[in-house]
Write a structure and sequence with these properties.
With 143 residues, the chain is α+β, with helices and mostly antiparallel strands. It has a single domain (2-135), classed as Hotdog Thioesterase (Thiol Ester Dehydrase, Chain A, Roll), CATH 3.10.129.10. It has helices at residues 25-42, 46-51, 125-135, and strands at 2-3, 7-10, 55-65, 74-84, 88-97, 105-114. Strands 1, 2, 3, 4, 5 and 6 form a 6-stranded antiparallel β-sheet that branches. A hairpin with a 7-residue loop joins β5 and β6 (105-114). The longest helix is centred in the N-terminal third of the chain and has 18 residues, at 25-42.
Length: 143
């Protein structure tokens, strides 16, 4: 499991619904912010991945809502890579208000590398080597 510092975001007015609560779909967007930050810090920006002819697609997503976020809340989105294999990997997330230990939302997303043809492709060797060096294995699971 590889954990990097959380991404901090502030809930904007456009992020809330008529009840003043963080609109449910924005939790997935916040997951993406944290995942992008994690990948950039650990490996490289998405743009460089795409320039190399690959993309990272979401193949599964799960959210568990626990408490509501509200306008102007400052949030921390914790993302950690928990599982990886030949072409897939999985991130787990926890979103909480800054200074609050109780999460607003938890969840996970699973991803697959695809090539320009839209078909699954192997994880780049450079990334596999870096993950192996940090985790001490050739791959965490068969994901």
């Amino acid at each position: 499991m590889i954990v990097l510092p959380p991404t901090r975001l502030r809930v904007r007015y456009s992020d809330v619904d008529r009840m003043g609560l963080l609109y449910h779909v924005n939790y997935l967007e916040f997951f993406e912010h944290a995942r992008s930050d994690w990948i950039r810090a650990f490996w490289k920006p998405y743009k460089e991945i795409e320039d190399a002819g690959m993309a990272l697609v979401v193949i599964e997503a799960h959210l568990h809502y626990l408490k509501s976020g509200k306008y102007d809340d400052e949030l921390e989105v914790h993302a950690k890579l928990t599982d990886w294999g030949r072409s897939r990997f999985r991130f787990e997330y926890v979103i909480n208000r800054v200074g609050d230990i109780e999460p607003l939302c938890t969840g996970w997303t699973a991803h697959c590398f695809i090539g320009r043809d839209g078909k699954p492709t192997k994880m780049p060797e450079e990334l596999r080597a870096k993950l192996s060096a940090v985790s001490g294995t050739n791959n965490a699971t068969t994901a």
